[in-house]
């Protein structure tokens, strides 16, 4: 698993014009291939009168799923340059649909490649992206007497507190970068006089 990846900040649409043809690039985050396909279907339905609805998506932090379609444009002139732009920008879990309304001027293969790839690049710049980093999930168990101060210290120290549960003891679920685990263990021992229990769990991605 890569340490981090980028994705779109949220769904949105950005429009560009090239030689009187309108190019509308719709971007959205997609956690699964089904989500990407549903988004594509929704855009195609909304713009059923368009000349083309070309698309590309990348799913997986390691870009394990990559698919694209030219939707009637000459082979390799639309979906592939869109996909290449997403990969060049290190985008993951993202789907892009570029809707073209033909303006009467043919662009040629090179022009189409630039237009479709450029539409995605401009949309990413305009709509914004966010970086997600791989974290180690961990559980800290501490007595009630120390729990309040510990939770406060974690939050003010910039640690991601995901959950707090109260029982016989207090269980605090956190997420921290793998590289920080040894130092965090030492800090925790000092902060709780060695009374807290630290248990490392699995991995997950979170916003930086």
What does this structure look like?
- This protein is of the alpha+beta class and 208 residues long.
- Helix content is 33%, strand content 39%.
- It has 5 helices and 10 strands; from the N terminus they run βββαββαβαβαββαβ.
- It has helices at residues 33-46, 79-88, 108-127, 144-156, 181-191, and strands at residues 4-8, 12-18, 21-29, 52-59, 65-69, 94-101, 129-142, 160-166, 170-176, 197-207.
- Strands 1, 7, 8, 9 and 10 form a 5-stranded antiparallel β-sheet that branches. Strands 2-3-6-4-5 form a 5-stranded antiparallel β-sheet, sandwiched between helices.
- A hairpin with a 3-residue loop joins β8 (160-166) and β9 (170-176).
- α2 packs across α3 (108-127).
- The radius of gyration is 23 Å and the shape is elongated.
- 33% of the residues are buried.
Topology:
Elements: E1 4-8, E2 12-18, E3 21-29, H1 33-46, E4 52-59, E5 65-69, H2 79-88, E6 94-101, H3 108-127, E7 129-142, H4 144-156, E8 160-166, E9 170-176, H5 181-191, E10 197-207
Antiparallel strand pairs: 1-7, 2-3, 3-6, 4-5, 4-6, 7-9, 7-10, 8-9
What overall geometry do the principal axes of the alpha carbons give? elongated
Averaged pLDDT: 93
How many strands, what sense, and barrel or not for the largest sheet? Answer: 5 strands, antiparallel
Helix/strand order: EEEHEEHEHEHEEHE
Structural class: alpha+beta
Low-confidence stretches: none
Proportion of β residues?
35-45%
Number of helical stretches of at least 4 residues: 5
Total strand segments: 10
How far apart are the first and last residues' alpha carbons, in Å? Answer: 16 Å
Instruction: Tell me the radius of gyration.
Output: 23 Å
Helix content: 25-40%
């Amino acid at each position: 698993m890569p340490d981090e990846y980028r994705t779109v900040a949220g769904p949105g649409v950005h429009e560009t014009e090239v030689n009187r043809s309108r190019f509308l690039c719709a971007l959205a985050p997609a956690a699964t291939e089904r989500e990407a396909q549903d988004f594509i279907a929704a855009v195609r339905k909304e713009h059923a009168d368009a000349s083309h609805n070309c698309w590309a998506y990348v799913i997986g932090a390691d870009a394990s799923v990559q698919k694209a379609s030219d939707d009637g444009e000459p082979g390799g002139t639309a979906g592939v340059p869109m996909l290449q732009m997403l990969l060049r920008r290190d985008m993951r879990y993202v789907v892009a649909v570029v809707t073209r309304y033909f303006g009467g001027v043919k662009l040629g293969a090179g022009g189409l490649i630039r237009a479709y790839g450029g539409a995605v690049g401009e949309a990413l710049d305009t709509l914004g992206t966010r970086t997600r980093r791989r974290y180690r999930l961990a559980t800290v168990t501490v007595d009630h007497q120390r729990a309040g101060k510990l939770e406060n210290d974690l939050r003010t120290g910039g640690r991601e507190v995901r959950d707090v549960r109260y029982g016989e003891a207090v269980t605090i679920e956190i997420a921290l970068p793998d590289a920080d685990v040894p130092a965090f263990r030492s800090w925790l021992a000092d902060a709780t006089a060695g009374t807290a229990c630290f248990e490392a769990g699995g991995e997950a991605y979170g916003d930086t």
